[in-house]
Here is the input.
Amino acid sequence: MKLPIKPGLLFAIPLAEKKFGFGQLVAWQKPIFYMVGYDVQADVPIINEDGIKKARPIFMGNFFDILIRNGRWLTIKNIDVPSVPFPCFKV
Here is the structure.
């Protein structure tokens, strides 16, 4: 099932040794997305919403959506966007 790439999208990131980390799109300022990476890992690219709500954000940053569009980061589902801080700087 192909999910729309929009804020709230939860995705799995392949890590070394057949593990997966998890991230979420939290904002979109075309063409750049703002994402949160969480401190949870799993042996499969599946996590429930409660697991993400309990997870601690360990990094945040901007990226383009090509890793999701080409299937390297696996989409899981759309959930509510968490309240996270945004950068307070201008480049």
Notes: The mean pLDDT is 87. The first strand starts at residue 9 and ends at 14. The radius of gyration is 13 Å. Strands lie at 9-14, 20-29, 32-42, 57-63, 74-78.
